Task: inverse folding
């Protein structure tokens, strides 16, 4: 068997889980001992996985993840006997690996599937999964072996400070501008398509680099959200091939005149840094990438950018505004052609990714989509040994998928048509929701600064799991379309009530998942009508999210609830001050809204409008006004609603009054949407 399987299954061999034809060598033993402090004769077992978020801060009670297959819903639990569940995972792994070909892609997927939510017993750290340990063991052993073989070195001659490894980092720049640059024609599909294009193109970039330098996907450390990291051996020939590959990637992006640029750079590091100071290596690479953004063009590529452009006889793409040689129809029923090749591709991406029958994206000489010189097609199935990617049913591993890479994408879409998201909704209103994890850079720089490569990888992997997998439980059945969900953020559109419910559930699920009050996220919630452009909605969503961040983070902000311009209308280009709430405050507001919502169905809408007008005035006489309404009202349900509101206005000082008015205004607007007939 090739060395790569000995690397990947090394620790599982120590557990006695897989020993058949396993080839190990001194490089496996060296990395295991030097990096992970695990000797070859160690007796270890599969054990329960400690939630890694509970180990970041001191004085936190440890919780444990349930041992499940990757892709299943994960819950936290106390330490208890999960031996039966763990044994089931091991048995299923053995069954599948014995029935499938010993190909790296397949074996790596199997290890990830069955060992992502279990760990190894001591001396291993229980907050790092068996999968992460196995992957990093293989990555480092393989890189070390290639380094020594290339330079004719033996392990005894290596120095701790010797620069054995290369960390390669990539950053796709201009993502938000690229995603937002769409017109109203086919906007929802184009938006979703552009978001998926970013996720897909980063995979194609990584595969091109690895193919050009002759290495496998084993060397992918992280990929997601327009960023990627590779760890490869520090070999001059590999570096030369990689530089050539980077030039070809940049040239393709320039030729396509995309509103994107790809920044790729690398730095070298040692075994000592792997063990003790890996965040310093990532920080050094981040600085290089930031500097390179300001000088991203090579001398060779400059003529392609600055050469004279003949504008005569060019067509204007009515989606992105670029001048191009030819435009196309987006839909067969379009009267005229108006979209450039790239915008048409984004639109088709958006359409195809929402088709539940599409399972694969396969390389094909006659494919409809071209990226970096390769052509691709979305297909339901394929015959023979084909290269490509799997976008659905990724936990179903088939014999023919030796050259298939699983892509974790959130393809949830209640409908491809925005109007269908408000069916049976009296107000015909929608909402957007944009969220992002707070202080993520600070988390990795400071709290994880002195931790190992494995611990950093675990935190990244678990955040990705929440936004790519755990999120499906919250989305289920809701009238929502996900535009994108990355490693630490998401953006979605949907029925205003379902999005409101989603926001509360996501907060609760995130808290349950991380079990750490210091790891938070902030979000923006924006109401809109079907007459608003997606581009405008995205801009205001970003504004709302920023206001949430400015509220001390761990917050949600609503689009301008204290003023009458809350709901976007006409040509408004921005929103003024809006209401930002801490998540715990929002939970209280949501609960109060649900209580009043049950009553509101039975009251006259004019009462809700009066409630709105009083809260708009932000007056200290609010309680008196509601008392007056209460005294005049004869309907029991109306009196009940007014009574609940009056309770909120009791014994308030001036500052508290303004806060309550703002919250009542938000509730009144939501109730107004509920009771519209």
Result:
């Amino acid at each position: 068997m090739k060395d790569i399987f000995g690397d990947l299954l090394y620790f599982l061999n120590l557990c006695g889980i897989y020993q058949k034809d396993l080839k190990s060598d001194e490089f496996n033993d060296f990395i295991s001992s030097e990096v992970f402090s695990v000797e070859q004769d160690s007796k270890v077992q599969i054990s329960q996985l400690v939630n890694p978020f509970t180990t970041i801060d001191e004085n936190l009670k440890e919780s444990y993840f349930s041992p499940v297959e990757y892709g299943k819903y994960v819950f936290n639990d106390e330490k208890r006997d999960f031996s039966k569940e763990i044994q089931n995972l091991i048995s299923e792994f053995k069954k599948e690996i014995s029935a499938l070909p010993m190909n790296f892609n397949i074996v790596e997927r199997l290890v990830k599937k069955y060992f992502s939510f279990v760990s190894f017993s001591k001396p291993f750290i229980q907050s790092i999964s068996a999968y992460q340990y196995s992957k990093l063991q293989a990555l480092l052993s393989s890189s070390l072996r290639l380094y020594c073989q290339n330079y004719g070195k033996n392990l005894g001659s290596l120095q701790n400070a010797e620069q054995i490894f290369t960390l390669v980092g990539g950053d796709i720049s201009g993502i938000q501008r690229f995603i937002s640059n769409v017109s109203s024609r086919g906007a929802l599909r184009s938006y979703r398509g552009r978001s998926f294009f970013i996720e897909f193109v980063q995979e194609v970039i990584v595969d091109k680099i690895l193919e050009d330098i002759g290495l496998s996907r084993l060397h992918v450390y992280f990929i997601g959200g327009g960023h990627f990291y590779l760890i490869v051996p520090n070999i001059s020939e590999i570096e030369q091939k990689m530089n050539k590959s980077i030039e070809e990637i940049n040239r393709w992006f320039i030729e396509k005149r995309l509103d994107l640029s790809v920044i790729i750079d690398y730095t070298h590091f040692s075994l000592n840094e792997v063990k003790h100071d890996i965040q310093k290596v990532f920080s050094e690479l981040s600085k290089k990438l930031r500097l390179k953004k300001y000088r991203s063009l090579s001398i060779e590529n400059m003529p392609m950018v600055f050469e004279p452009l003949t504008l005569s006889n060019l067509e204007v793409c009515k989606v992105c505004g670029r001048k191009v040689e030819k435009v196309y129809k987006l839909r067969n029923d379009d009267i005229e052609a108006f979209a450039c090749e790239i915008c048409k591709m984004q639109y088709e991406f958006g359409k195809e990714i929402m088709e539940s029958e599409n399972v694969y994206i396969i390389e094909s000489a006659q494919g409809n989509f071209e990226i970096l010189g390769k052509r691709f097609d979305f297909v339901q199935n394929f015959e023979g040994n084909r290269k490509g990617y799997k976008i659905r049913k990724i936990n179903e591993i088939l014999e023919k998928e030796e050259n298939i890479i699983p892509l974790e994408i959130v393809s949830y879409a209640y409908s491809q048509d925005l109007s269908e998201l408000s069916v049976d909704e009296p107000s015909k209103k929608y909402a957007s929701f944009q969220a992002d994890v707070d202080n993520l850079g600070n988390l990795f720089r400071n709290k994880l600064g002195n931790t190992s490569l494995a611990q950093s990888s675990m935190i990244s992997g678990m955040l990705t799991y929440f936004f790519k997998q755990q999120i499906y439980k919250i989305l289920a059945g809701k009238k929502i379309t996900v535009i994108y969900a990355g490693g630490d953020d998401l953006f979605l559109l949907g029925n205003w009530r379902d999005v409101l419910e989603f926001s509360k559930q996501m907060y609760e699920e995130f808290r349950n998942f991380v079990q750490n009050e210091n790891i938070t996220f902030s979000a923006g919630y924006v109401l809109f009508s079907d007459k608003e452009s997606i581009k405008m909605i995205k801009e205001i969503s970003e504004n709302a999210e920023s206001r949430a961040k400015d509220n001390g983070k761990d917050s949600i902000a609503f689009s301008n609830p204290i003023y009458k311009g809350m709901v976007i209308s006409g040509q408004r280009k921005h929103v003024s001050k809006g209401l930002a709430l801490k998540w715990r405050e929002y939970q209280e507001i949501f609960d109060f809204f649900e209580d009043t919502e049950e009553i509101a169905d039975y009251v006259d809408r004019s009462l809700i409008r009066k409630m709105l007008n009083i809260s708009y005035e932000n007056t200290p006489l609010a309680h008196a006004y509601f008392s007056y309404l209460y005294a005049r009202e004869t309907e029991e349900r109306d009196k009940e609603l007014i009574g609940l509101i009056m309770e909120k206005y009791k014994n308030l000082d001036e500052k508290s009054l303004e806060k309550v008015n703002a919250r009542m205004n938000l509730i009144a607007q939501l109730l107004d949407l509920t009771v519209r007939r």
User: Anything to note?
Assistant: The longest strand covers residues 165-173. The mean pLDDT is 86. Residues 62 and 231 are 31 Å apart (CA to CA).
